[in-house]
Amino acid sequence: QILETERLILRRWTADDEGPCHAICSDPLVMQYVADGACWTLERTRQFIEEAISTERQYGYCRWPMILKADGRLAGFCGFTPAADGAEMGWRLDS
């Protein structure tokens, strides 16, 4: 567990996150303001999770899954990603 609030848990990625993460990243309402607005394929979702795991191993941070305590559902992800001048904050939330 990375961080816990009253309603959320941020934790490391697991294989079980692939389906719920893909559901979020393939939702046109979620993706409309992300990059070019294109929904992600399942392969792109897998790539994102693999990159996040690798980033955490290398830097000690990534964009972690946010789990709702109330029902254990993946609500999205948030955290940091490396950038040329340090790190950028990023997030994506279920619609």
Give a structural overview.
With 95 residues, this protein is α+β, with helices and mostly antiparallel strands. It is 32% helix and 31% strand. It has three helices and five strands; from the N terminus they run E-E-H-H-H-E-E-E. The chain has helices spanning 18-25, 28-31, 42-59; strands spanning 3-4, 8-10, 63-68, 74-83, 86-93. It has a five-stranded antiparallel beta sheet. A hairpin with a 2-residue loop joins strand 4 and strand 5.
In what range is the share of β-strand residues?
25-35%
Order of helices and strands: EEHHHEEE
**What is the global morphology?**
globular
Straight-line N-to-C gap: 24 Å
Quote the average pLDDT: 96
Structural class: alpha+beta
Measured on Cα atoms, how large is the radius of gyration?
A: 13 Å
> How is the biggest beta sheet arranged?
5 strands, antiparallel
Helix content: 25-40%
Please count the beta strands (DSSP E, at least 2 residues each): 5
Low-confidence stretches: none
Number of helical segments with 4 or more residues: 3
Strand order of the largest sheet: 1-2-3-4-5
Key structural traits:
alpha+beta, globular, 95 residues, single chain
Please give the structural blueprint:
Blueprint: E1 3-4, E2 8-10, H1 18-25, H2 28-31, H3 42-59, E3 63-68, E4 74-83, E5 86-93
Antiparallel strand pairs: 1-2, 2-3, 3-4, 4-5
